[in-house]
Amino acid sequence: MFKLSFQSIGHVVVRSYMSFRNLFKISIVPNLIDPLFYLLAMGFGVGAYLTHVNGMLYRDFVITGLIAATAMSAATAETTVNAFIQYKIEKTYDAMFMTPINTSDIVVGQAIWAGIRAVIFGGIFWLISMLITAHFHVLMLLIPLILFIVGYLFGVLGLIFTYLAPSREFLNYYNVLVIRPLYMFSDTFFPITSLPPILGDLTWFSPLYHATRMIRIIWGGEVTGLYLHLIWLIALALLITVLPMYMLHRRYYR
Asked: Which GO terms describe its cellular component (predicted)?
């Protein structure tokens, strides 16, 4: 069930890239419009009145949160709506199973592509942010790695929910009840210390919170405290990868 082939995983990633390449231009706007509007409204609108938060410009506080949130959204779109279409509508999975590719290869391949997609769109927003702030140092080259890890993790989470979804419309519950709250309450727009204590404690379990904290630490030119967040994200990503592998294998080989 959990046997992996690097060659087969590569084929899944390449297939996803070929599909993405044809849709890249029309996918830029939906993936970047939300963070850009939030940046204008919060970073510059609210930022005109609230200049500093936790020792950094509020504009930069929002930007660092939105870089991570953009990566999360890009990965989620890939492994929810896009994956559901391949899984149940276009029957792409059935076609792949006619080759040596197995269920585990598909899960890991799609999660890796979700990570790459997170790097693409999170990276574009990061580049826009650098143009706005004129802020760059060499440690910021670690940001794409963080975007990939958070993209892979949310890619796996998206696949879990997609394999449970009886219909495409059901995916809205995941976006409304999971992704949107994480977007709003993971240290993205305000410090979690302003939340009630129990909610602040629960935020620690948000993958987006840890990604945001890492990007914020790097943005400030430091690495202190980075490793705990990094280990937490990698451990969770590796742990939960097994679940969609099992779900997909059970679906096709029970």
From this structure: ATP-binding cassette (ABC) transporter complex
Q: What is the DSSP letter of 241?
A: H
Q: Where are the alpha helices (DSSP H) in 165-225?
A: 171-174, 180-184, 197-203, 207-219
Structure tokens at 82: 């896009």
Using an 8 Å Cβ cutoff, are 25 and 124 in contact?
A: no
CA-CA-CA-CA torsion for 96, 97, 100, 106, nearest 10 degrees?
60
Nearest alpha carbon to residue 244 among 122, 156, 138 = 156
Residue 52 in 3-state DSSP? Answer: strand
pLDDT tens for each residue of 179-223? 999 998 988 888 888 888 888 888 889 999 999 999 999 998 888
d(CA 40, CA 67): 14
Please write the tens of the pLDDT for every residue from 118-165.
999 999 999 999 998 888 889 999 999 999 999 999 999 999 999 999
Q: Which helix (H) or strand (E) holds 251?
A: helix 226-253
DSSP state for residue 91 in the 8-state scheme: -
3-state secondary structure of 205: coil
The residue with tokens 């802020």 is 135
Please name the residues in contact with 154: beta carbons below 8 A apart, sequence gap of 6 or more.
Answer: 71, 72, 75, 76, 79, 114, 118, 207
CB 118 within 8 A of CB 111: no
CB atoms within 10 A of CB 23: 10
